[in-house]
């Protein structure tokens, strides 16, 4: 099909690879949405503590500390999902569209 001339690291990007990449994009976006929702939940419960000073951080109640930890954990997971799943899949789709890379392979993202 349309992807028959597109290359990925010296290989032809097959229709199957494109469909797998599209499925990965859909899955990665759902995963990212989940991380963002948890970050928003944690953020709203922390609003009363911001702006956060060094002293405020030292005296943060344990429940707020747990929410801050949740926010930071989800932020890290969001970055991982984007870098390791979403961007490489989008790169595969881009290569299939025009035969060139948008430069979003895991090695270039990290």
Report what the structure shows:
By secondary structure, the chain is mainly alpha-helical. Helix content is 71%, strand content 4%. The chain has four helices and two strands; from the N terminus they run ββαααα. It has helices at 15-46, 54-58, 62-98, 106-109; strands at residues 7-8, 11-12. A two-stranded antiparallel sheet has the order 1-2. Strand 1 and strand 2 form a beta hairpin. Helix 1 (15-46) packs antiparallel against helix 3 (62-98). The longest helix has 37 residues, at 62-98. It is rod-shaped, with a radius of gyration of 19 Å. Residues 1-5 and 105-110 have low confidence and may be disordered.
| Series of secondary-structure elements, N-terminal to C-terminal | EEHHHH
Spatial order of strands in the largest sheet? 1-2
Mean pLDDT over the full residue set: 84
Distance between the termini: 32 Å
Strand content: under 5%
Low-confidence stretches: 1-5, 105-110
What's the total helix number? 4
Mass-distribution shape: rod-shaped
User: Based on helices, strands and strand pairing, what is the structural class?
Assistant: mainly alpha
Radius of gyration: 19 Å
Count the E strands.
2
Helix content: over 70%
Could you give a short account of the major beta sheet? 2 strands, antiparallel
């Amino acid at each position: 099909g349309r992807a028959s001339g597109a290359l990925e690291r010296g290989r032809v990007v097959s229709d199957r690879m494109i469909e797998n990449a599209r499925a990965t994009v859909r899955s990665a976006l759902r995963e990212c949405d989940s991380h963002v929702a948890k970050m928003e939940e944690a953020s709203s419960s922390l609003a009363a503590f911001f702006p956060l000073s060094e002293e405020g951080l030292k005296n943060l109640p344990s429940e707020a500390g747990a929410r801050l930890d949740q926010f930071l954990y989800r932020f890290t997971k969001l970055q991982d999902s984007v870098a390791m799943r979403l961007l490489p899949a989008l790169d595969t789709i881009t290569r299939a569209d025009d035969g060139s890379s948008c430069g979003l392979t895991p090695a270039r993202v990290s």
